[in-house]
Specification:
By secondary structure, this protein is an alpha/beta fold. It has 15 helices and 20 strands. It is globular and about 60 Å long. The structure holds inosinic acid (IMP) and magnesium ion (MG).
Length: 399
Amino acid sequence: MVGLQWGDEGKGKVVDYLAGSFDAVARYNGGSNAGHTVVIGQRKHTFHLIPSGALKGKELLVGAGVALDPVILADELALLPDETRRRLVVDGRCSLVSPSDKELDAALEELRGTSAIGTTRRGIGPSYAMRALRLAPRVSDLVAGFDFDPLNRFYKKLDVDPSGLIAWAEESRKLLGGLVGDVAGRVVDIAEKGGSVLFEGSQGSLLDLLHGSYPYVTSTHTTAAYIPAALGISPGLAGKPLGITKCYTTRVGGGAFPTEEKGPLAEQIRSIGNEYGATTGRPRRVGWLDLVALRYSVGINGAKEVAVSKLDVLSRVKEFKVCIAYKHQGSEVSDFQAALGHLGEVEPVYETPFSLHGANFGSGLPPEGKKFVDYLEEKLGVNVALVSHGEERTSTIEL
Ligand code: IMP
Ligand code: MG
């Protein structure tokens, strides 16, 4: 399951919905910057690190590509039934996120001033950077013992206080007790026994470190191709990607957003769609569906199957439009890759082929919904496999 936009496409809800037909759910990228929301009846669960299959009783795997914050993992586990812990395996090769990484994340954002990325300040960028510098402890290093001296010296050079690291490491070692294992090995075992694993992506393709709207991106890879690399399994085991998009677009943090809408209409969509960050509570920026960006995401993921979410939100909004191309210096651009260098300067070209206003999902896919599905299938060359029209598991239509 991969997000085709800038995150918050509804992955959590759909992963929970689909998890019933899998043996395990695995996270493979990102960290506690993710906020995956699952609503069951009156209860809302937000998962930052625990895979969204938690409420379906599935085996829960956290793969090597995840930046692991043991304190947040423990806080999250504490909110779930005790037996959840027995179903959870954290790969020993995961990088850790330390309190110093969070301090550095905040300090870097301050330094950037008006060009701040708008990170979640969860220490994700610094944790992955430390891994690339070969200074970060892995989960298995906490168990085996780790020489913190080089890391301490490095942090001191950056004017970050590392004095709490030893106590944090000791506490984290206890919190992770009994959870550490070989996630890659588990995935292979499950596959060899004829079972299946749902790979739950975090963030969205346009936040990918290499292929997204750099530098306004996250610090890991978010496309389907990263699944095998991040978990440590063969590409052949990764299966087929299911992309997910909202019927409009949102973005949290800085960076260009060609179809962004501002003013009362944006406020209306934000309020109906409850578009506030699940991790930071920030209001999400909202805008229209962007087919230029989506075609690109579908392409880089090789997504033939797509889920669309939040159709209920636009059923309550009179306006509806879709961006079909960009205008840049007088000429039309329909290639997102070509526009990436000047995404802040393009003007969207819109069309309103139909509207979702008034669509009623009470008894299956209404005519407005069908038009939208047909339109997306034609414009993106994909099969729309699932429509989500509300937070509840029951507000889901499989096609
Ligand atoms: P970081 O991942 O905290 O470093 O933040 C980098 C950028 O990615 C910021 O614009 C964040 O708002 C965005 N971001 C990170 N995680 C998520 C997510 O789960 N949903 C939406 N945006 C995210
Ligand atoms: Mg989210």
